[in-house]
Amino acid sequence: MLMQTHEARLSALREELKRRGLDGFFVPIADAHMSEYVGEDAQRLRWLTGFGGSAGSAAVLLDKAAIFVDGRYTVQVRDQVEERLFEYRGVPKDNPANWLAENAGEGAKIGYDAWLATPGWVRSTSAALEKVGAKLVPVDGNPIDAVWQDQPAQSDAEARVHTDTHAGRNAQEKRAAIADWLGEEKLDGVVLSALDSVGWAFNIRGGDIAHTPVTMAFALVQQDGTAQLFIDENKVGPELKQHLGNAVTIRPRSEFESALGSFEGKRIALDPEYGVAAIAQALEEGGAKVVETRDPTILPRAIKNEAEIDGHRDAQARDGAAVSRFLAWIEAEAPSGEVDELTAAAKLLEFRSVDGGLKDTSFDTISAAAGHAALPHYKVDEDSNITIPPGSIFLCDSGGQYIGDERAGTTDITRTVWVGSADGKAEPSAEMKDRFTRVLKGHISIARAVFPEGTTGGQLDTLARMHLWEAGCDYAHGTGHGVGSALGVHEGPQRIAKTTGSQGGTMEPLAAGMICSNEPGYYKAGEYGIRIENLVLIEERAIENADEGTWFGFENLTWVPIDRALIDIDLLTPEERDWVDHYHACCREILKQRVAETGDERAADWLERHTQPL
């Protein structure tokens, strides 16, 4: 009989821990590749607790348990997880290691899955537990898997070739560059464990994880340029075998761990952020020297080539037409009071799906009405779904994965719009317009920024916030993240955000070819939220009479009109008004024909009206 309640599941886990002689266990949202999004078979935290967010963890002892989430999920965790079963804890103020140290007794054995934890996490948690006489112990097989009776099977989606036309660079060249790097660093090989790194280095894509077109695989690349790809055999067809060529040995994924034991005396690179502890442990047990260093694919993957940039531009135009049709639909239908959040998200997917190049959404659509819009990472479901109230703000953050015949790209866009009333009399408040316009001013400040070589995202972040700061306001998320090329919608190493102790990419110098989001926001708890997000490409800028050196600016990639009803024109400078007018003129030029070809006359009219000068 299946366990239906989370109380029964927690009880079953505790019985399994007792059977194994363990006093506790750590439960992250993670897979063996440290992916942002994980497959259904890896959703162990959701199965155990009910929490459906994309980031979080739990610590379970035999008599108590706690769940740890960041500020994005403070409300969601209380809606989905029973407090009588799990204490609510907020990170970074609290963390599982300290909680376990405070609550586990002397001599306690705390289990963890070494395939779901990084070496750094193991070191820090072990140190915290050792201070109180407790011990961190790797488990042989995840105990949740032992009690999860209807755990989904791993995806068996076939891997597919990502053509040189899409990639702009063939896989042999990429792996030769990795081999050159290994030689320069005096390394014998590197483990590629991040799925997007494997996808990039071998020019392959797949369908194993929702929203990110990757295939489950590990890779080992050696200094002579040869490589081993560890992937389930049922995923590899004749076309992929031919694509990979003789320099790549295809081996079953099940042989990966044992293969790590064959590098005695060799120096093997492993990225400490994506390489899990089990990989490091297997290498060391086989006599290899593990060198923790950044995955050599990360920076070249972030710096897009011309084919990838062209693919992004094409994808943004395709996406812009679909989102414009959706916003025209919202403007016409939502004032009736009969459109709910789920219906809106489904309608947007319908508009996007008209394009045959759409392979998936790039993340779960954030379709957020009224107070829900104040939750930056809100995810609508049957329980949370509400009708979009007439006379309110509606926020939609969404994206698509487009892989056409010749071009491929990943999109991410947020638009915040005013939903009027059926009688046409409802107007946004002065405060709403003030906050929206300050967010817009921050967005424009980033879009217009010019900066010298060596500038980091942390240095630019203040530009997006300064107009909100003037009014005593701020937002708790970053201003911009990197974006992949038909890969992850969130990609490093660059980031535009406040500089913190952990840095998190904010200290990475921005370089030409990198793509970032530009998404300042404002959130009034329980009432409304605002975010304006475009993607931008970093490009070199020629500046007359500039100092010596290289200078950069941003090329805008996203083209969808910004809601004029929420703009307080008096708060904009003449330069900012010119920016909005020019942006809208470009939207009209880029999207007019695409929208017209759909035959959607309402959207064509909407586009014309919403791109007029302020």
Structure description:
The chain has three domains: about 5-145, Creatine Amidinohydrolase, Chain A, domain 1, CATH 3.40.350.10; about 160-300, 3-Layer(aba) Sandwich (Creatine Amidinohydrolase, Chain A, domain 1); about 305-610, Creatine Amidinohydrolase, CATH 3.90.230.10. It is globular and about 70 Å long. Strand 2 and strand 3 (about 65-70) form a beta hairpin. The strands form eight sheets. The chain has a six-stranded mixed β-sheet with strand order 4-3-2-1-5-6, sandwiched between helices. Helices cover about 35% and strands about 20% of the residues. It is α+β, with helices and mostly antiparallel strands and about 625 residues long.
Note the topology.
Elements: H1 6-19, E1 24-28, H2 44-49, E2 57-61, E3 65-69, H3 74-80, E4 87-90, H4 96-103, E5 109-112, H5 119-130, E6 135-138, H6 143-147, E7 160-161, H7 164-167, H8 171-184, E8 189-192, H9 195-202, E9 204-205, E10 217-222, E11 227-231, H10 238-244, E12 248-251, H11 256-259, E13 267-270, H12 277-285, E14 289-292, H13 298-302, H14 306-333, H15 341-353, E15 358-361, E16 366-369, E17 392-398, E18 400-403, E19 408-410, E20 413-419, H16 430-447, E21 451-452, H17 457-469, E22 480-482, E23 491-496, E24 515-518, E25 521-524, E26 528-531, E27 534-540, E28 551-556, H18 574-597, H19 601-610
Parallel strand pairs: 1-5, 3-4, 5-6, 8-13, 11-12, 13-14
Antiparallel strand pairs: 1-2, 2-3, 7-9, 8-10, 10-11, 15-18, 16-17, 17-20, 18-19, 21-28, 22-23, 24-27, 25-26, 27-28
Helix pairs in contact: 4-5, 14-15, 14-18, 14-19, 16-17, 18-19
